[in-house]
Amino acid sequence: MAAARSLGRILTAAALATLVGCAREPPPSAPPVVGCLEALRAAGLAVEPWAAPGSGACRVEAPVRLARTGLTFDRPLETSCPLALAWLRFEPEVRAIARRETGLEVVRVLHMGSHACRRMTGNAGRASLHARALALDLAGFELSDGSRVTVLEHWSDRGPRGRFLRAVAKAACLRFAMVLTPKSDRFHRDHIHLDLGPFAGCDA
Ligand SMILES: [Zn+2]
Predict the structure, then answer these.
(1) CA 99 to ligand 1 centroid distance, Å
(2) How far does residue 179's CA lie from ligand 1's centre (Å)?
(3) Residue 7 lies in a domain
(4) How far is the CA of 151 from the centre of ligand 1 (A)?
(5) In angstroms, rounded to a whole number, what is the distance separating the alpha carbons of residues 113 and 22?
(6) Torsion of CA 23, 27, 31, 32, to 10 degrees
(7) Ligand 1 centre from 84 Cα, in Å?
(8) pLDDT number for residue 123
(9) Which residue from 34, 132, 144, 165 lies 20 to 30 Å from 21 (Cα-Cα)?
(10) Given this model, what pLDDT does residue 32 score?
(11) For residue 121, what pLDDT is reported?
(12) What's the CA-to-centroid distance between 182 and ligand 1, angstroms?
């Protein structure tokens, strides 16, 4: 009996330790800031410091400025480390989808920025994920033949360019919390919005 009691105590202690362990963990939607810069550097990226403007609801945790990841950006990407890392992990999928759908390589990412201290479109009561640079607005891509595929021009295209963009949005739904596209509303007619939550949705 004594053995059983002490086993019970051990199990209770183990359960408590698990609970305490869980309590210390960030919620699933919390962006992984800890270790993020190290992960970017380990991937060989030149991470420039960026004095992100904004405070309070517009404060950017671990701000980074990247001229390129594996791909070049049409203008330096000023964002949060978690968003940069999420993009870095998604990028090989974008390249593979481009190859599959167009037979071409992606050489440049066309974007409309990550950080903007503003309210959510269509929901003025909530700060946009852009306020903390936890979102990215993708306008399109430049391909290895020099042509550009843009959300504004090619989202509804029935050919390879449209298929490429729509497949990128679909794939993004597995990597990002919220994916908004021209299917969402008129605010997104020219870009694909990707963010890291906490709200989830997939308009691909
Ligand atoms: Zn956006």
Answers:
(1) 26
(2) 9
(3) no
(4) 13
(5) 35
(6) 30
(7) 15
(8) 64
(9) 132
(10) 72
(11) 66
(12) 12
Domain count, the chain: 1
- The whole-chain average pLDDT of the chain stands at 86
- Per-residue pLDDT band at 122 (split at 50, 70, 90): low
Q: How far apart are CA 136 and CA 79, in angstroms?
A: 8
Structure token pair of residue 149: 């595929």
pTM of the model: 0.82
CA 193 to centroid of ligand 1, rounded, Å: 4
Question: Which segment of 1-15, 29-43, 81-95, 136-150 scores lowest on mean pLDDT?
Answer: 1-15
113 Cα–ligand 1 center, Å:
8
Cβ atoms of 135 and 87 closer than 8 Å: no
Report the pLDDT averaged over residues 161-183: 97
Domain membership flag for residue 90: yes
Bridge partners for 120 per DSSP: 123
Domain assignment of residue 159, yes or no: yes
Give the Å distance between the CA of 194 and the centre of ligand 1: 7
Within a domain: 75: yes
